[in-house]
Amino acid sequence: MPFKPADNPKCPKCGKSVYAAEERVAGGYKFHKSCFKCGMCGKMLDSTNVTEHEAELFCKNCHARKYGPKGYGFGGGAGCLSMDTGAHLQGDDIVVNRAPLLAKAIAKAPDGQGCPRCGGYVYAAEQMLARGRAFHKTCFKCGECNKGLDSVNVTEGPDRDIYCKVCYGKKFGPKGYGYGQGGGTLQSDCFAVSDQAPKTTVADTASIKAKPGQGCPRCGGVVFAAEEVLAKGRQWHRKCFKCRDCTKTLDSINACDGPDGDVYCKTCYGKKWGPHGYGFACGSGFLQTDGLTEDEISQSRPFYNPDTTSIKAPPGQGCPRCGGMVFAAEQQLAKGTMWHKKCFNCAECHRPLDSVLACDGPDREIHCRACYGKLFGPKGFGFGHRPTLVCADGTAPAVHDPRPNSGPKAAPGQGCKRCGYVTLLKMLINNFKVF
């Protein structure tokens, strides 16, 4: 069987076979290394500057001049304005593709799932979102002037179409004297030829009544989000959110919720619901009695009993002095027990105490230091809180050195068991016998 060589790919430029050692690939075609150059200027190409068009190779500049946009303002890919008419491209050796340019067929999507403008499928690489719908990038333009839009200047109209801001203002914006309709000029519309300015109308939201208990507490109308003011969990109109008595406009700082379910300013709230009588300003900065008698003031004043001893605690858990319940705001601690602040005083002289002055006595009471010393401190000659001992005959008693290693030792069995000297108690008894 005769040998049959393998078919090698042909170079599109010279038509000869291309072997692996000399091949250059571009656009799916294999070229010779010597044929891998621009078809117009003959410049040698590489993978960074090659441009393929229908099996023809061009550098980027020549490809832009031949196939790029032309006319005033386009540089033809050369980085400058070009008035080139393309006369050097009219030769017979240039292959020109004369196939008619046909619009690409876009696959139609089911109703409501494609582009709202053309109805075709929208893929992630070209989608533009507006109003939760996906548009083609080429279809994302104004419905009036066909201006290309982006996420900054797009405006969604009530007819479910998209517009630029100027066209949206002209079509859906307010009209009349003083409004420019988004075009940057004053527009009087139907009053353009008239000297009379149109009448402005203000919609009264109070006329749109809401269901009972759901509208504005002042007027009963429906409260919309643009004019909503909240107070005490209820919605008010902005124009209705004012003081009930003086009709002063309120805000979140100076508004006071009254017990009657209405709102007041701080001054009126103080006059109506604050304390009355001599010394109270009622929130107005001056003394205010409103002509009320003491009996009327006492009846309207809520009952308050400051005596916490009336709230008895379980046995052993309350204040040791009065037995009442001790709350955190008034508690004082001593010996592991909680005391009322007003009960935390000396049991003898009733002097108010604190954590420094208080002394816990063995009787489970608290005392000041002076009373504690008088009650439970040592007594006798040389200790305070008792009258000083004096000698009847005027002679000063002998002063004994309290140190244990001085003076005579005691009789056996009568002194200190460790050192043998007379103890202080024995010494005091001997001194008393002398007197």
From TrEMBL:
InterPro entries (UniProt xref): Znf_LIM
One of the Pfam families matching this protein, by short name: LIM
Molecular function via GO: actinin binding; metal ion binding; structural constituent of muscle
Database matches in CDD domains: LIM1_MLP84B_like, LIM_CRP_like
Predominant place of localization: nucleus
Gene Ontology CC, one term: Z disc
Compartments it resides in: Nucleus
Keyword Cell membrane part of the UniProt annotation: no
PROSITE patterns referenced in this protein's UniProt entry, alphabetically: LIM_DOMAIN_1 (PS00478), LIM_DOMAIN_2 (PS50023)
rRNA processing keyword on record: no
Alphabetical keyword list: LIM domain, Metal-binding, Myogenesis, Nucleus, Repeat, Zinc
Domain LIM zinc-binding span(s) in chain numbering: 9-69, 113-174, 214-275, 317-378
GO biological process: muscle organ development; muscle tissue development; sarcomere organization
Entry-linked SMART domains: LIM
Name used for this protein in its record: LIM zinc-binding domain-containing protein
